[in-house]
Amino acid sequence: MKRLLYATGLALFFITPAVHAEATDCAAAKTQADLATCTAKDAASADAALNAVYKALSGRLSSADEQRLRDAQRAWIPFRDKECAFRTQAYADGSVYSSLLETCRTDLTKARLAQLQHQLKCPEGDLSCVPQAAGAPKPATAAPAATAPAKQARTTRGHACNRPARRNPTNMSRNAFRCRRRPIHPATVRMRAA
């Protein structure tokens, strides 16, 4: 009989926190235990959402871009933890520290989630996005690169500020200083020479 009472008491001891955790209303949480439970739930749900978007995005990237994303994510996790430790270090000795730390981690995780969601749902033509395998850029991107040196050659003729110094590096720095001070129009240079 003693064993039965002991087992029942022990079972109630372990079941009560689990029931309490599920029954916690996070909107009306007032005790520190309720706040800690709610912030832990929020952090876990934000982390799960981040992992889902991360997996979806990594599945759409090339292997090189997927490796870059993995490296960025591996660097971001310690950043998040250190940033939250920095933000909450003033409260490290208090009872609210764990809740503040989880809230900070949740906020930064949600911000990272928004960044990855933007990458995942990036509109075509947005240059801030990584090209994805489904919407990879067309091979026609090599043609504009071939015309770029011709444009550059045209802009280096004419005005002294646009020409690099050939033999005297001090001449180049003098021209650069003069051009930063005030722009000199080519017609003005001809008028001065006359």
UniProtKB/TrEMBL annotation:
Alphabetized UniProt keyword annotations: Signal
Cited PANTHER family: PERIPLASMIC PROTEIN, PERIPLASMIC PROTEIN-RELATED
Domain of life: Bacteria
Biased composition (Low complexity): 136-153
Organism: Rhizobium loti (Mesorhizobium loti)
Listed name of the protein: Lysozyme inhibitor LprI-like N-terminal domain-containing protein
Pfam families, sorted: LprI
Region (Disordered): 136-171
Signal sequence residues: 1-21
